[in-house]
């Protein structure tokens, strides 16, 4: 699952929970876009954001203004801001590379659900099939600080009707950040369905 | 299921994800109310919203300011804005007409979960019975562009305890838009529960 925030082709959008802040130009607007290009994070070097301060255009597709500078290596904003809600329309690919065979989409949302930013409550549906008629829905807490954590399968449609089971979610370290100009988080999702 | 946005008796409220915009008076507040009445959309003619520009009161019950003018025939705002979250308290009626016998309520939320606005992730509970003791909860992706799509039944209470199955959701074309001064979307929901 490729979750891309910011850049020219984001698959996730932070829609709530970003506290407006320091810059009077922002006026409570949750989004801002830098003019020019700082992203992607390349080579794992934390972003320099001095240049961001003048940016107040608002296209809703880029990273929230306030916290970009607090991004640790490989982190997403959602780790940091308790309560932030991110809506996702992420690609599911067979291999790890963004751009490899797309097998489906993951649509839903996650929200930062611990004060220390170490957990995300996730609720999303994976859609498969030519007519996206086969779906599996997930709900649970993804502990982003853990190597691996589990969410529950709460239902499904099509050939996954009444699906039960769980999925493990693992945040992978990205070796290639050049395929998007946003900030990509790559999640490996392994689904275990129960016979019943 | 009658989902009514805007007007004097809305059953849904957009709470997040509206892009702030053109009017400096708005200052990022997602809601605005027109003084007077433009709604309902009648005869499928796109709204003229020139008159909306002076309206900056914010009661949270009316349609978001920015995009009302972009509404195509029969569309809701949620088709248009990736990430918009709408909380609902919609009436469930036996027949299609708003005002026909109410059999329950649908409470929960949906969010625009594709970049092109063609899908909504829905999470809601249908409440039935004199004391709303019988409930069925649904979660999944409603593909608004499709004739019909499915969401999963993820649980229930009362006589629907441990409910499993799915529901099909079909967006019906409204022939009578005069029963509300909001923008109504009528969804026909057919529930298929599994014996187990």
TrEMBL record, chains A, B:
InterPro entries: Allene_oxi_cyc_Dirigent (IPR044859), Dirigent (IPR004265). Its main location: secreted. Keywords: Apoplast, Secreted. GO terms for cellular component: apoplast. It is found in: Secreted, Extracellular space, Apoplast. GO terms for biological process: phenylpropanoid biosynthetic process. It comes from the Eukaryota. Belongs to the plant dirigent protein family. Dirigent proteins impart stereoselectivity on the phenoxy radical-coupling reaction, yielding optically active lignans from two molecules of coniferyl alcohol in the biosynthesis of lignans, flavonolignans, and alkaloids and thus plays a central role in plant secondary metabolism. Homodimer. This is Dirigent protein. The lineage of its organism: Eukaryota, Viridiplantae, Streptophyta, Embryophyta, Tracheophyta.
């Amino acid at each position: 699952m490729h979750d891309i925030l910011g850049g020219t082709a984001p698959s996730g959008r932070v829609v709530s929970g970003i506290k407006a802040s320091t810059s009077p130009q922002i006026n409570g607007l949750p989004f801002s876009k830098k003019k020019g290009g700082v992203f992607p994070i390349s080579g794992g070097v934390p972003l320099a954001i001095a240049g961001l301060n003048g940016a107040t255009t608002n296209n809703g597709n880029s990273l929230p203004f306030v916290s970009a500078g607090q991004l640790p290596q490989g982190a997403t904003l959602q780790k940091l801001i308790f309560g932030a809600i991110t809506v996702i329309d992420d690609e599911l690919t067979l291999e790890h590379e963004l751009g490899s065979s797309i097998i489906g989409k993951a649509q839903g949302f996650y929200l930062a659900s611990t004060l220390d930013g170490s957990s995300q409550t996730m609720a999303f549906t994976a859609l498969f099939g030519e007519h996206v008629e086969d779906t599996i829905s997930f709900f649970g807490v993804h502990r982003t600080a853990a190597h691996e954590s589990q969410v529950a399968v709460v239902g499904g449609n099509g050939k996954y009707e009444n699906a039960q089971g769980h999925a493990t979610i693992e945040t992978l370290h990205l070796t290639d950040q050049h395929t998007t100009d946003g900030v990509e988080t790559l999640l490996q999702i392994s689904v275990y369905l129960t016979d019943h």
